[in-house]
Specification:
- It contains seven helices and nine strands; from the N terminus they run ββαααβαβαββαβαββ.
- The protein has 226 residues and is an alpha/beta fold.
- The chain folds into two domains: 34 residues; 180 residues, Vaccinia Virus protein VP39 (Rossmann fold, 3-Layer(aba) Sandwich), CATH 3.40.50.150.
- 31% of the residues are buried.
């Protein structure tokens, strides 16, 4: 059997590879991409995000009350999806705006077409990178993520940017599936234990970290920028 060689320029060097090694790299790289994608919510299933039954175990009214915010003006929803929380939260604000951020162009387009009309408190859909939101530092009273943390590829980067976005005294909220068997939700293999989330928040510089045991299937964590 002949051994086929490929030569690839890399700066001022010529790298030599067997063709079978390149094929192996392609296969492994594809598998890594598929593994990363498997953690993300499929935008084609966005109807699930609008299911009214969600309110039975993720009640926005109950969550808003627990947050105990004092006249917030700017909220940033990371992984907003279809605005399941952005909509009711905006309706509880007297003024300001809600930035509904998502990495999925399909989700952002859906929000632009369905929920970003004239409102007392506008909802602003934004297409963003996972760990960087193009807004000024120190603008938000609340940054929050719901059912997202287990999907993050670089959670410390995402949390650090959330800290940057918050005003001093502003709150961070993370709600995600408990690391136990629940009706529905992602596989246990990709869920994150609440203690790990707490440690990540501490590493990023958050203070006053609290766990609220009020949701049946989800952990609910808040922290503050001191």
């Amino acid at each position: 059997m002949k051994s086929f060689l490929c030569f690839i320029a890399a700066g001022d060097k010529i790298l030599k590879f067997h063709r079978k090694d390149i094929q192996k790299f392609k296969i492994e790289n594809t598998e890594n991409i598929e593994k990363m994608s498997s953690k993300k919510f499929d935008p084609k299933k966005l109807k699930k995000l609008n299911d009214p039954a969600r309110k039975q175990f993720q009640d926005p009214d109950l969550i808003w009350k627990a947050l105990n915010l004092k006249d917030p003006e700017v909220l940033i929803d990371i992984g907003a999806g279809t605005g399941f929380f952005a909509i009711p939260f905006s309706e509880k604000m007297g003024r300001g705006k809600v930035y509904a951020c998502d990495i999925s162009e399909e989700m952002v387009t859906w929000m632009q077409q369905n929920i970003s009309g004239i409102r007392q408190v506008p909802i602003v859909p934004m297409l963003v990178a996972e760990s960087k939101i193009s807004l000024d530092s120190g603008v938000a009273d609340l940054v929050y993520m719901v059912n997202l943390h287990h999907e993050l590829e670089r959670p410390l980067d995402t949390l650090s940017d959330a800290l940057r976005l918050l005003k001093t005294g502003g709150k961070m909220m993370i709600i995600d599936w408990k690391n136990e068997e629940t009706p529905g939700g992602p596989p246990l293999s990709i869920r994150i234990d609440v203690s790990m989330i707490e440690n990540q928040l501490k590493k990023c510089g958050f203070a006053h970290i609290s766990v609220h045991d009020i949701l049946p299937y989800h952990c609910f964590i808040t922290a503050e920028k001191s």
